[in-house]
Every structure is written in structure tokens, then in C-alpha cells.
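User: Predict TP901-1 family phage major tail protein's structure from this.
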Amino acid sequence: MVAQNGKDLLVKIDMTGGGLFETAAGLRATRISFNAESVDVTSLESTGGWRELLGGAGVKTASISGSGVFKDDATDERARQIFFDGETPNFQVIIPDFGTVEGPFQITSIEYAGSHNGEATYELSLASAGALTFTALI
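Assistant:
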């Protein structure tokens, strides 16, 4: 993969629960992280005392975070609604020249900040809440 423009890494929110995705407005920085828990099956018979892991086992998780400025009442309101209602709607993350990750996420935190001589900002953190799909770019 060649160098990409950071602004092209997009987080999209399902606005209606019916697959109408809109980019979370005003985000300046976004990040997605994938993790897989390992299951250690090392025993006295493990060759050379090396750790052995059970393939395909363990919990897979993904987390999304982003920060930015307020730009759009609709996506700001939807994010607040999702948080306060405890919903786990689908989100999409567009990874430039790679593909799209989609699935249910829970907003685990929303932070608001501002200074007297600057813009109001917000930060979002999301945790995967079910199976995710990946669609590669063709």
C-alpha cells in the first residue's frame, strides 16, 4: 500500500438503522485497531519449551477512536443518541486503498472540550459489539 491521505480514513454512522451511512462530521483524526486474544496451550511436551497458541481461538475485538470539531448537527445528535440509548448500530470504517470494515459498535465514550479562544472539540471511542465484515477494494 502506498502513502494515503489521513483525511480519507472515514468513520461512518448508520443514521437510521437501515443502512443509511453518513460520515461522522468534523473528525480530524481517526484510528481503528484490531486485536485477537491468544489462548496459550503450552505444556511440558511443547517443543524446546516454546509457547504454543491455539489457532482460531480467543476473542477478536476492534476499537475505533476519533477526534474533531463540531460540523454537523445530524451526526453529532446521532452519536449522542447512540451513547445515551446504549445502542449498538452498524458503523463503517473506510480505509483508503484497502477496503471497508462494517459491523456493530458501541460508543464507549464521548468527550467534549473547548477553550475560550478556540473551537469546541469532541472525541469518540467505540468498541466492537459483534461480528465485523471486511470488504476489500476491487
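Residues 73-85 form the longest helix (13 residues).
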